[in-house]
Amino acid sequence: MNFLFKNDRESVSNTSELDKHNMKTDDARSKNTRKLADARGKYKYNYTHIPSIAMLDKLPWKEYPSMAWLSLVAEEVINTIINTLITVIDTAIAKWRNRKLPRKNLTTRTQPSNAKHLNYADKQTIPNILINAIRFLILEAITKPAIVPILKIIGLSIFGNFLNWILKLIFKAHPKSDPKKDVASLQEYNELFTEIQLPEIANYFEEDEVFAYMRVAGYNPLTIERVDKLEDKFPVTEAQYQEVMGNDDSLVAAGEEGRLYLADYKILSGATNGTFPETQKYSYAPLALFAVPKNSDSLMRPVAIQCAQNPLDAPIVTPKSDGYAWLFAKTIVQIADANFQEALSHLGRTHLFVGRFAIAIHRQLPDCHPLSLLLCPHFQGTLNINNLAQKSLIAPGGDVDKLLSSTIDTVRALVEADLQNYSFNEAMLPKQLEKRGVDDTEKLPVYPYRDDALLIWNGIHQWVSDYLNIHYKSDEDVQNDTYLQNWATEAVAYDGARVYDFGEKYGRIETLNYLIDATTLIIFTCSAQHAAVNFPQKGIMSYAPAAPLAGYQPVSILKGEVTEQDYLNLLPPLKQAEEQLNILQLLGSVYYTKLGYYSDNYFSESSVKTALEKFQANLLDIEKTIVQRNYNRPKYEYLLPSKIPQSINI
Questions:
Q1: DSSP 162-231
Q2: Cα angle at 591 between 414 and 157, to 5 degrees?
Q3: 469 in helix, strand or coil?
Q4: Which of 46, 165, 249, 477 could bridge across to 57 with cysteines, CB 3.0–4.6 Å?
Q5: Residue 101, SS3?
Q6: Is residue 45 classed as helix, strand or coil in its secondary structure?
Q7: Is the distance from CB of 360 to CB of 496 less than 8 angstroms?
């Protein structure tokens, strides 16, 4: 089948028509050759940004962000700037008046609210004028046509630099910036939220049910796996198990019946601890055991935690442990989960995973090729945001270096090792769920991520199948598509995208079914998978006690009596918590484009438009199903189709 140009669909009935067709084909082929040669000059691979990972060398002008995207980002940046300013003003005024801000004990619930700590009269005049002036100046700046080219060149980094400049210029030293100062209560973290609403998770994150729910519906619902029994490195006893699950249950029975689940963070073992700025951070590789109660369709329960891979390094802690040991251990699991999420589930397995295909498609497929037409909207903004990340977020001294437990070199090495071993062909969602043993809804009845993600996966798969069946009528059409095969070859090439196992054979696509599955995985990763790990950064992870990005106490604390202050000292210093709030609030707030909705008349063929309308109707049905599910479970909205962007653009 010929994909040299969109409108080459006419039949050829005589010699004269054949000559014209051949001439037209030769012209189109020559034009495509020139365009692809030009694209290869602009889209070059770089293997040093993160050593050995295929990334874009320099960002072509075509990939710079739109003003619509910049406006959305700017709006969220303004919110974080104002939130920080109000926090600083609140604290400074209280300090100047020798008035301490009210503190609450650890167990006090604080309802989500936009209310400020000082009353309105306290914050009139100069502070309000200053805040409104800053808001006005930022809005003026981003709406002036004359600076559009500058914004496109500088991109996202302008906003972070502007925030730092404002704080340094006006306040010189942040009243809460001393990392050595002990935090006295959780209320101090709550007080970081002023203009930005305190997330609901702040009210109940300590609860065991919430801790278990994070494994199946949190910011990283991808680590638990079913186990038949425990390895020697995690020697949970029958007595410890029954202490939680009851005397009518047993560890052996739970394993045999498929009710035993493990979150093992061994991939993080051996990581080099980081520092901020001179305060020691700690990386952890815990194991956490969960079990579904007998004859139950309820959520699994947390049974035991070991905060290191070697039982000699950390004792086993259970919900029945004395003092703050259990909360301390749960927090270490949350820290490990957050580091896994940011480095692997988020950066490696979505951003960098997809970025390689985005580069290859520009280099090997003409713009009019049906696969290019289908995939390019799902790559919108990805190369730009990856480029910005390697210059800022994941650069030495960037937010990853500052906030995560390990050094930036360790994080980069971890991402590299994981992505090199992350099998494309095993990454299909149904295969992933089966591989981890979490696909059985009877054995593991409560798993919102699994249930909602499968709806989206199947919807995308149907749309991709309908679309590609319009353009490919047989496996032979796939095999004979030179452009497609060149793209597949470059995907696995050492001097290409380095996706080591792409294709049915090394760098070959032999069947239409494989092409459908592979395309589904790419689109699912660009949209739903990224949404599932990105947007909880705002709703959950922006509140540092619920999901600390680093720990500040060694696991050896668990060998003695753990106090409330030990637990508080495990959490990030307030300045770190504020940095975490600012960056994750931004990254989790920008919704640009929506899954299933392409630009007007993007697809010209009526058959494709019909298939797209079917997909859009399916997404509406999925939305209704998820909304209905949320009446019968703790709310999980990260995979509502209306909240899933088309691409990784933040």
A1: HHHHHHHHHHSS-TT--TTSPP--THHHHTT-SSSPPPGGGGTTTSHHHHHHHHHHSS-TT--EE-SS--
A2: 60
A3: helix
A4: 46
A5: coil
A6: strand
A7: yes
CA 494, distance to chain mean position in Å, is 27
Written as one string, the DSSP assignment of 235-246 is: ---HHHHHHHH-
- For residue 164, pLDDT over 80 is answered with no
Phi-psi region of 295 (alpha: psi -120 to 50; beta: other; left: phi over 0): left
| Pairing of β 260-264 and β 316-317 | unpaired
CA 424, 426, 430, 432 torsion-angle sign: negative
Asked whether residue 15 carries a pLDDT value surpassing 60, the answer given is no
d(CA 267, CA 302): 21
Rounded distance between C-alpha atoms, residue 62 and residue 387, angstroms: 13
Q: Which of 637, 579, 182 is nearest to 400 (CA)?
A: 579
pTM reported for the whole predicted model:
0.88
- Half-sphere exposure at residue 448, Cβ-oriented, CA atoms within 13 angstroms: 27
Q: How many CB atoms lie within 10 A of CB 619?
A: 23
Strands (E), 292-424: 301-306, 316-317
Dihedral angle sign, alpha carbons of residues 198, 200, 203, 204: negative
Cβ atoms 547, 219 nearer than 8 A: yes
In angstroms, the CA 126 to CA 118 distance is 15
The pLDDT of residue 385 is: 95
pLDDT band, very low/low/confident/very high, at 17 (cuts 50, 70, 90): very low
Other beta carbons less than 10 A from residue 92's beta carbon = 14
**604 in the Ramachandran plot: left (φ > 0), alpha (ψ -120 to 50) or beta?**
alpha
Nearest to 576 by CA among 189, 196, 218, 203: 189
171 burial via Cβ count (<10 Å: 0-12, 13-18, 19+):
middle
- Give the other-Cβ count within 10 Å of 21's Cβ: 15
Taking residues 231-244, what's their average pLDDT? Answer: 97
Q: Give buried/exposed letters for 202-216 (b at 16+ CB in 10 A, else e).
A: bbebbeeebbbbbbb
| Cα 562 from Cα 147, distance rounded (Å) | 55
**How many C-beta neighbours within 10 Å does residue 569 have?**
16
**The three-state (H, E, C) secondary structure of 521-535, written as one string:** HHHHHHHHHHHHHHC
DSSP 349: I
User: Comparing C-alpha atoms, which of 42, 45, 43, 48 is closest to residue 394?
Assistant: 48
**Res 277: pLDDT:** 79
Query: 489-512 pLDDT, tens per residue?
Result: 999 999 999 999 999 988 899 999
Which parts of 288-366 fold into alpha helices (H)?
325-340, 353-364
Cβ neighbours for 335, distance < 8 A, ≥ 6 positions apart: 284, 405, 547, 548, 549, 550, 551
Task: Tell me what pLDDT residue 178 has.
Answer: 62
pLDDT band at residue 558, thresholds of 50, 70 and 90? very high
Amino acid found at 116? K
Query: What is the pLDDT at residue 137?
Result: 56
Using DSSP's 3-state secondary structure scheme, residue 301 falls into strand
What are the tokens at 198? Answer: 């305190």
Name the token pair of 504: 């049915």
> 478 near 493, Cβ under 8 Å?
no
The values of phi and psi at residue 505, to 5°, are: -115, 175
Six token digits for residue 168? 């340094």
Residue 91 neighbours by CB under 8 Å, 6+ apart:
101, 175, 176, 191
| DSSP symbol at 273 | B
Q: Residue 19 and residue 38: Cα distance in Å, rounded?
A: 29
